[in-house]
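not sure who needs this but someone in the group chat was asking about Transcriptional regulator GcvA from Pseudomonas fortuita so here u go. i didnt clean anything up, its just raw.
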Amino acid sequence: MPNGFPELPPLNALRVFEVVARHLNFRLAAEELGVTQAAVAQQIRGLEAHLKLRLFERLPRGLALTDAGLGYSASIRSALAMIDEATRLLRPQAAHLTVSVTPTFASKWLIPRLGNFAQKHPDIDLRVLATDRLSHFSTDGVDIAVRYGKPEIGAGLNSELLMDQRIVAVASPTLFEGTRVPASFAQLQDFIMLHDAHDFWPQYLAAVFPQHAQPTAKNLRFNQTSLAIDAAVSGQGIALASLAFVSDEIVAGRLVQVFAQQLGLDKSFYLVWPRKLQQPESLGVVRRWLKQQADNS
């Protein structure tokens, strides 16, 4: 059978040539390829002998491409990229899906559950975009988002309730060593109140202690709910947080619920995703998994 590519040099020599042409240095090329400098130099000499022309000028410091080598390197790099792309397309690719959530939602609710998702759905490459900024689905490459608020969702978007918001007061059990858990508004004033950007304390106090006086407790303020929760875990004071964000810490004994009362809010967590005629199958899988996790939390 006749050779279909009679002028084709050894493919390994072409791969070595592409690396050397990028680095213009035998040592750096050898490091990338995981071989010795002598092996790299031998491949280049063999290729030049096969082509019967010089591809590199040997300089006191490094290398320079000859005119022939410069044009050849561009063509070889393009050809190798085509081979790489053809090989990649042969392999089944994981479905990519990006979910946008707030940093607190990510760290206190989603991340502890991601191992479960990866185990159940190894074929889906789930990417988490944690930001307080309202993500744009098209420009940010977001497929689905968890948004907090009321169900007024913009045109062209689908929404589904993920879970209601229930606020509880929590603290480390170490905070009450040698003292008692506060049972009244006056006793609460002996402890530091940990605030986040939502600042639910005025609403919570009004609901739990309707006739309370002006608070005199010391305050620490954080811009992230997750930071207030972490401060509570470390025994810094009493924090208000969504029960969904602290339930794992309560079960583990790192936090205790200080008061039995929960503050219900008219804002909830919603799943939001763009309306499209054809949705990727992975979107439905992730939506169902998020709903299942919320129902079980």
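also The CA atoms of residues 98 and 127 lie 5 Å apart. if thats useful
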